[in-house]
Amino acid sequence: MPIEHVLFDADGVLQELPGGWYSAMEPYLGERAREFLHETWKDELPMLAGQGDYLPVLAATLERYGVRTPVTEVYDAVWKNIVLIEESLEIVRTLRRNGYGVHLGTNQESYRGTHMRTVLGYDELFDVSCYSYDLGVAKPNPEFFTRAAARIGAHPSTILFIDDNPHNITAARTAGLKAEQWTFPQGLPTLHTTFAAHGVDAGPASPFSDVS
Questions:
Q1: So where does this one cross the membrane (predicted)?
Q2: What is the spatial distance between Cα 180 and Cα 173, in angstroms, rounded to a whole number?
Q3: What are residue 121's phi and psi, to 5 degrees?
Protein backbone atom coordinates (compact mmCIF):
# COMPACT_ATOMS: atom_id res chain seq x y z
CA MET A 1 0.00 0.00 0.00
CA PRO A 2 1.34 3.46 -0.83
CA ILE A 3 2.36 5.89 1.89
CA GLU A 4 -0.47 8.34 2.59
CA HIS A 5 0.66 9.67 5.97
CA VAL A 6 3.94 10.76 7.56
CA LEU A 7 4.33 10.62 11.35
CA PHE A 8 7.18 12.70 12.80
CA ASP A 9 8.96 12.47 16.13
CA ALA A 10 9.75 15.86 17.72
CA ASP A 11 13.06 16.02 19.64
CA GLY A 12 16.00 15.51 17.34
CA VAL A 13 13.81 15.70 14.26
CA LEU A 14 11.74 18.87 14.44
CA GLN A 15 13.22 20.58 17.48
CA GLU A 16 16.28 20.70 19.69
CA LEU A 17 17.42 21.81 23.13
CA PRO A 18 20.32 24.21 22.44
CA GLY A 19 23.55 22.81 23.83
CA GLY A 20 21.82 19.66 25.06
CA TRP A 21 20.17 18.65 28.32
CA TYR A 22 23.35 18.25 30.36
CA SER A 23 24.56 21.73 29.52
CA ALA A 24 21.15 23.21 30.30
CA MET A 25 21.16 21.72 33.82
CA GLU A 26 24.76 22.62 34.68
CA PRO A 27 23.91 26.13 36.00
CA TYR A 28 21.81 24.46 38.69
CA LEU A 29 23.78 21.29 39.41
CA GLY A 30 27.26 21.62 37.95
CA GLU A 31 28.98 18.26 37.62
CA ARG A 32 25.92 16.46 39.00
CA ALA A 33 23.74 17.53 36.06
CA ARG A 34 24.12 14.22 34.23
CA GLU A 35 23.40 12.17 37.36
CA PHE A 36 20.34 14.28 38.14
CA LEU A 37 18.89 14.09 34.65
CA HIS A 38 19.19 10.34 34.40
CA GLU A 39 17.40 10.03 37.74
CA THR A 40 14.59 12.43 36.86
CA TRP A 41 14.14 10.89 33.39
CA LYS A 42 13.56 7.55 35.10
CA ASP A 43 11.07 9.21 37.47
CA GLU A 44 9.33 10.78 34.47
CA LEU A 45 8.54 7.50 32.69
CA PRO A 46 5.03 6.99 34.17
CA MET A 47 4.17 10.61 33.34
CA LEU A 48 5.12 10.04 29.70
CA ALA A 49 2.27 7.54 29.67
CA GLY A 50 -0.09 10.02 31.33
CA GLN A 51 0.20 8.64 34.86
CA GLY A 52 0.80 11.32 37.48
CA ASP A 53 2.01 14.90 37.70
CA TYR A 54 5.66 15.49 36.83
CA LEU A 55 6.27 18.90 38.45
CA PRO A 56 5.93 17.73 42.10
CA VAL A 57 8.20 14.79 41.33
CA LEU A 58 10.77 17.08 39.71
CA ALA A 59 10.51 19.52 42.63
CA ALA A 60 11.24 16.76 45.15
CA THR A 61 14.28 15.59 43.21
CA LEU A 62 15.63 19.14 42.87
CA GLU A 63 15.25 19.62 46.62
CA ARG A 64 17.04 16.37 47.31
CA TYR A 65 19.93 17.58 45.15
CA GLY A 66 20.03 20.87 47.05
CA VAL A 67 18.61 23.10 44.30
CA ARG A 68 16.69 26.02 45.82
CA THR A 69 15.52 27.56 42.55
CA PRO A 70 11.72 27.19 42.16
CA VAL A 71 10.77 24.15 40.11
CA THR A 72 8.77 26.19 37.60
CA GLU A 73 11.80 28.39 36.93
CA VAL A 74 14.04 25.38 36.30
CA TYR A 75 11.39 23.71 34.17
CA ASP A 76 10.89 26.80 32.02
CA ALA A 77 14.63 27.32 31.58
CA VAL A 78 15.39 23.69 30.65
CA TRP A 79 12.35 21.69 29.52
CA LYS A 80 10.74 24.58 27.63
CA ASN A 81 14.02 25.77 26.09
CA ILE A 82 13.08 24.40 22.68
CA VAL A 83 14.35 25.66 19.34
CA LEU A 84 12.38 24.66 16.27
CA ILE A 85 14.25 23.39 13.22
CA GLU A 86 12.67 25.56 10.55
CA GLU A 87 13.95 23.45 7.65
CA SER A 88 12.24 20.38 9.14
CA LEU A 89 9.01 22.29 9.68
CA GLU A 90 9.05 23.40 6.05
CA ILE A 91 9.15 19.72 5.04
CA VAL A 92 6.01 19.22 7.14
CA ARG A 93 4.29 22.10 5.35
CA THR A 94 5.37 20.82 1.94
CA LEU A 95 4.04 17.33 2.62
CA ARG A 96 0.69 18.76 3.68
CA ARG A 97 0.54 20.87 0.53
CA ASN A 98 1.27 17.74 -1.48
CA GLY A 99 -1.77 16.00 -0.02
CA TYR A 100 -0.26 13.77 2.68
CA GLY A 101 -1.60 13.49 6.18
CA VAL A 102 1.19 14.81 8.39
CA HIS A 103 1.17 13.97 12.09
CA LEU A 104 3.21 14.22 15.28
CA GLY A 105 4.19 11.17 17.35
CA THR A 106 6.23 12.12 20.43
CA ASN A 107 6.98 11.09 23.99
CA GLN A 108 6.10 13.99 26.29
CA GLU A 109 4.63 14.51 29.74
CA SER A 110 1.68 16.86 29.87
CA TYR A 111 3.41 20.14 30.75
CA ARG A 112 5.95 20.04 27.93
CA GLY A 113 3.38 18.58 25.57
CA THR A 114 0.95 21.41 26.27
CA HIS A 115 3.72 23.95 25.69
CA MET A 116 4.48 22.36 22.33
CA ARG A 117 0.82 22.25 21.32
CA THR A 118 0.07 25.86 22.19
CA VAL A 119 3.15 28.09 22.44
CA LEU A 120 5.07 26.31 19.67
CA GLY A 121 1.97 25.97 17.51
CA TYR A 122 2.17 22.24 16.80
CA ASP A 123 -1.59 21.79 16.93
CA GLU A 124 -1.91 24.03 13.87
CA LEU A 125 1.09 22.53 12.10
CA PHE A 126 -0.05 18.89 12.20
CA ASP A 127 -3.22 17.12 11.13
CA VAL A 128 -3.20 14.74 14.11
CA SER A 129 -1.08 14.95 17.26
CA CYS A 130 -0.12 11.77 19.12
CA TYR A 131 1.48 12.68 22.45
CA SER A 132 2.37 9.75 24.67
CA TYR A 133 0.78 11.30 27.76
CA ASP A 134 -2.47 11.60 25.83
CA LEU A 135 -2.32 8.14 24.22
CA GLY A 136 -1.57 6.53 27.58
CA VAL A 137 1.50 4.67 26.31
CA ALA A 138 5.03 5.74 25.38
CA LYS A 139 7.50 4.72 22.71
CA PRO A 140 9.14 2.25 22.24
CA ASN A 141 6.07 0.22 23.16
CA PRO A 142 4.55 -0.88 19.82
CA GLU A 143 1.12 -0.11 21.29
CA PHE A 144 1.99 3.59 20.93
CA PHE A 145 2.00 3.14 17.17
CA THR A 146 -1.12 0.99 17.11
CA ARG A 147 -3.00 3.71 18.98
CA ALA A 148 -1.45 6.44 16.81
CA ALA A 149 -2.60 4.70 13.62
CA ALA A 150 -6.10 4.34 15.07
CA ARG A 151 -6.17 8.02 15.98
CA ILE A 152 -4.97 8.96 12.49
CA GLY A 153 -7.61 6.63 11.06
CA ALA A 154 -5.25 4.88 8.68
CA HIS A 155 -3.89 1.39 8.06
CA PRO A 156 -0.44 1.18 9.69
CA SER A 157 1.22 0.20 6.40
CA THR A 158 0.20 3.54 4.87
CA ILE A 159 2.11 5.50 7.53
CA LEU A 160 5.82 6.37 7.34
CA PHE A 161 7.35 7.18 10.74
CA ILE A 162 10.49 9.34 11.11
CA ASP A 163 12.38 9.23 14.43
CA ASP A 164 15.95 9.62 15.69
CA ASN A 165 15.80 6.62 18.05
CA PRO A 166 16.45 3.14 16.60
CA HIS A 167 14.37 1.44 19.31
CA ASN A 168 11.36 3.49 18.26
CA ILE A 169 11.95 2.56 14.62
CA THR A 170 11.92 -1.13 15.53
CA ALA A 171 8.72 -0.71 17.57
CA ALA A 172 6.97 1.14 14.75
CA ARG A 173 7.84 -1.59 12.27
CA THR A 174 6.58 -4.21 14.74
CA ALA A 175 3.24 -2.38 14.74
CA GLY A 176 3.14 -2.50 10.93
CA LEU A 177 4.26 1.02 10.07
CA LYS A 178 7.03 1.88 7.65
CA ALA A 179 9.75 3.58 9.68
CA GLU A 180 13.14 5.20 9.09
CA GLN A 181 15.72 6.69 11.43
CA TRP A 182 16.73 10.32 10.79
CA THR A 183 17.94 13.23 12.89
CA PHE A 184 18.23 16.80 11.69
CA PRO A 185 22.08 17.07 11.74
CA GLN A 186 22.12 14.45 8.95
CA GLY A 187 20.74 17.13 6.64
CA LEU A 188 17.63 17.38 4.54
CA PRO A 189 19.05 15.70 1.41
CA THR A 190 19.24 12.48 3.43
CA LEU A 191 15.61 12.87 4.45
CA HIS A 192 14.58 13.54 0.86
CA THR A 193 16.36 10.34 -0.18
CA THR A 194 14.41 8.45 2.50
CA PHE A 195 11.12 9.88 1.28
CA ALA A 196 11.95 9.05 -2.33
CA ALA A 197 12.70 5.43 -1.37
CA HIS A 198 9.14 5.18 -0.02
CA GLY A 199 7.58 6.96 -2.99
CA VAL A 200 6.76 10.07 -0.93
CA ASP A 201 6.69 13.37 -2.79
CA ALA A 202 8.33 15.87 -0.43
CA GLY A 203 8.92 18.47 -3.14
CA PRO A 204 12.30 19.67 -4.40
CA ALA A 205 15.36 19.02 -2.27
CA SER A 206 16.21 21.89 0.06
CA PRO A 207 19.25 24.05 -0.71
CA PHE A 208 20.36 23.38 2.87
CA SER A 209 22.86 20.51 2.80
CA ASP A 210 23.37 20.50 6.57
CA VAL A 211 21.28 22.03 9.33
CA SER A 212 23.57 21.13 12.21
A1: none
A2: 9
A3: 80, 20
